[in-house]
Amino acid sequence: MEHLVVFLLHQDLTETLKSELSGKFERLIIALMYPPYKYEAKELHDAIKGIGTKEGVIIEILASRTKAQLREIMKAYEEEYGSNLEEDIKSDTSGYLERILVCLLQGSRDDMSGFVDPGLALQDAQDLYAAGEKIQGTDEMKFITILCTRSATHLMRVFDEYQKIANKSIEDSIKSETHGSLEEAMLTVVKCTRNIHRYFAERLYCSMKGIGTWDGTLIRNIVSRSEIDLNLIKNEFKKLYGKSLSSMIMVSKSLSSTHLIFCSHAHRHNYIISLIKNLRIVLSPK
């Protein structure tokens, strides 16, 4: 759609909309204009290159995407910004946070196989226990290696075995053994492994709870998941909080066009074209 309108207008549609809109509504409309992977590449670029690195955004995207999705995001990032996403992350982060982000980005996890080796799962659980609860200090790289290279089905078995060995959940051990952004990254991997729809439901809820709203988180997650699993996230949200996602968005008053973020691409197309007409942009070559 963007290319069609750019051809008609002889100018970039996104920049035109930016000049005519403002605030949260502008952010929503611009987000809807981007192809999915290009939009996620933009969010990562803004998180890395903006004022202060927004580790939470980087963690959220890298920990929740499949290998195939990450490849598309990296490709879009390089095409759009002329730089390598992995190198940019390395230059803007350090230590074990850098290690886990790069490991996630490299997509070493097998996200297609449902096969679980019980012996390896038990060994991984024992290794995690030996790397944390059993010793003074923590072997962070052991946690990173297992969390970032094993499949989700395998990790679920590892978490069960770990509970038996340590008599506590892997989440509780991560909280006691790590802190800050590294803790957030590891916990995000675990949450996405256990139930990715619940993870996004919680993330959306937190973005609207309390004083003010995290509008970037709200818009990014709804727009990026709208063509993937938003209905499942909405169902999980209702189960967790006893109210619909759309009703909470309306109550929070964080977005005035709630209907737009839940509609299909075709309806969005028609809406934005209507918006352009209302802004009196002439849809014809000059």
UniProtKB/TrEMBL annotation:
Q: Which UniProt keywords apply?
A: Annexin, Calcium, Calcium/phospholipid-binding, Metal-binding, Repeat
**Positions of Ca(2+) binding:** 208, 210, 212
Question: What Gene3D superfamilies does its record include?
Answer: Annexin
Q: Which domain of life is it from?
A: Eukaryota
GO MF annotations for this entry? calcium ion binding; calcium-dependent phospholipid binding; phosphatidylserine binding
Q: Which Pfam family, any one of them, does this sequence belong to? A: Annexin
Gene Ontology annotations of biological process type = endosomal transport; endosome organization
Give the CC-aspect GO terms.
Answer: cytoplasm; nucleus; plasma membrane; vesicle membrane
Query: Matching InterPro entries, A to Z?
Result: Annexin, Annexin_repeat, Annexin_repeat_CS, Annexin_sf, ANX8
SMART domains reported for this sequence: ANX
The family annotation for this protein states: Belongs to the annexin family.
What's in the domain note?
A: A pair of annexin repeats may form one binding site for calcium and phospholipid.
Please report the name of this protein according to its UniProt entry. Annexin
